[in-house]
Amino acid sequence: MIISTTKESLASPLALVAGAADTRGTVPMLGTVLLKATDEGQLSMLCSDTGMLARTLTPVEVKKSGELAVDVRRFFDLVKVIPEKQPIEISLEEKGTLLLKSGRSRFRLPALAAADYPRMTPDREGRISVTMNARRLADMIADISSSMADADLRPYLNGALFTLDSVGLWLVSTDGHRMNVSHEPILGADELEPRNVIVQRKTVLLAKKLLGQGGNVTLTLGPKNIQFTFESGSVLLGTAVDGTFPAWRNVIPSTTEKVSVSSDRFSNALQMIAATSDEKERQDAMKTKVEMHITKATTTLRRGDSGLCELESESSSDAPFELAFNIHYLMDAISTMRGVSDEATIGYSASASAITMRPKDKDYPLAVVMPLRV
């Protein structure tokens, strides 16, 4: 393999796929990137940890086709420090090493045989595909990212649920204390077979990065996998998480009252109150407690004697309402609303169940936050 290219052509697509590699594992091959130069003048860069696979294509000058696998971290670190706009030549030497030439510099990295690279081949049966705007799907992932669990003993919570039904695409995540839901209508969805796929956290977050490329994306849901196929030729494939996702629609509380607040002012008030706690207190659930007191025209946020903020608001009820919440959960919820609308609507009821939070005059994205019990 011999190719000529530039730092600009390598660095950005390599940064996107590197997240799919397993650089901390004990299998060296899973920490590599598979480089494949084709006769069509493109370089394919592929990383996989056997649970997910990411591939990007970038145009290069191919002098000789071929493929090799090289440690992705070392290769990426080298590419990043090469001067801008300086030509790069990459070749595979007979002794099995990657030779990178740039200007008057020469670098060698050990290479592994491409034939030994692990292959992921999805089952083609029963797959359903829809095409949508990539940035819109990235926004949907952003809507639900904050409530994905991380290292929970229940694997099905360490990720997000992708559901396709007769009214469109739903993304849902929960860590057991809060839940976020995002929705997008899909034309023709009523003619497709309903499908539910639980996608692991690592795949969801990498998908968000790849979706930032823009354009359209074809989202394919299989019985045991999910695939994102981009107009640029990039592909992200992930295996589904085994398990049954909670019946999330049953978690959404029936609220009888609502209060409208400024998204910016609510967010800023929470940030100011959070600033009064130290690092040790942030690790204690009860010391992250913030009390929310709602009256007809005012919402008050209080953290013990450390901080208090009063906000103008408009409640549908004359009766006061008060509950305590984890301040960080409220901050994440209002941050999601803040990106969509200047005002947020908080739904609540006298039964003291969970609250809901939505952009004003919109149903989604939706955040559900459970109260903090003393």
Strand content: 35-45%
**Major β-sheet, in short?**
13 strands, antiparallel
Q: Widest sheet: strand order?
A: 5-1-7-8-9-6-2-3-4-17-16-15-10
Portion of residues in helices?
Answer: 10-25%
Q: Over the alpha carbons, how many angstroms does the gyration radius reach? A: 24 Å
Number of helices: 8
Classification by helices and strands: alpha+beta
Shape: elongated
Distance between the termini: 64 Å
The overall average pLDDT, rounded, is 93
Low-confidence stretches: none
DSSP strand count: 26
Structure description:
The longest helix has 12 residues, at 134-145. The chain is built from 8 helices and 26 strands. Strand 7 (88-92) and strand 8 (97-102) form a beta hairpin. The radius of gyration is 24 Å and the shape is elongated. The mean pLDDT is 93. By secondary structure, it is of the alpha+beta class. The chain has a 13-stranded antiparallel sheet. The protein has a 9-stranded antiparallel sheet with strand order 14-11-12-13-26-25-24-18-22.
Task: Summarize this entry quickly.
The chain contains eight helices and 26 strands. It has helices at residues 7-17, 72-81, 134-145, 201-211, 248-251, 263-274, 279-282, 327-338, and strands at 2-5, 32-37, 42-48, 52-59, 61-64, 66-71, 88-92, 97-102, 105-112, 128-133, 159-165, 168-174, 178-184, 195-200, 216-221, 225-230, 235-239, 257-262, 289-294, 298-303, 307-312, 314-315, 321-326, 343-348, 355-359, 366-369.
